[in-house]
Design goal:
The longest helix is centred in the middle third of the chain and has 12 residues, at 22-33. Helices cover 16% and strands 35% of the residues. It is globular, with a radius of gyration of 14 Å. The protein has 1 helix and 4 strands. The chain starts with 14 loop residues before the first strand and ends in a 12-residue tail after the last strand. It has 74 residues and is α+β, with helices and mostly antiparallel strands.
């Protein structure tokens, strides 16, 4: 048997959200979920890692730079 811990049922594995204003959206999710927000430097701006306790569970990214084409419209 593997030493790897299985995630609990209902646990978030990881999800990225790409939006025009990642700072505002990361703050919204911090307030709603209670998750921590850790800035991740992208050079000229920060994207964000959302942490549930010690575990990173999501990324909130600005729709610019390498992520510019990731935003879905409509």
């Amino acid at each position: 048997m593997s030493d790897t811990k299985k995630p609990k049922i209902g646990a978030i594995g990881w999800i990225d959200l790409t939006v025009p204003d990642a700072t505002r959206v990361a703050d919204f999710y911090r307030q709603v979920t209670g998750w921590g927000v850790q800035p991740l430097s992208m050079g000229e701006y920060d994207d964000y890692v959302m942490n549930a306790g010690e575990t990173g569970v999501a990324g909130v990214c600005h729709a610019r730079g390498a992520n510019q084409g990731c935003r879905r419209s409509g």
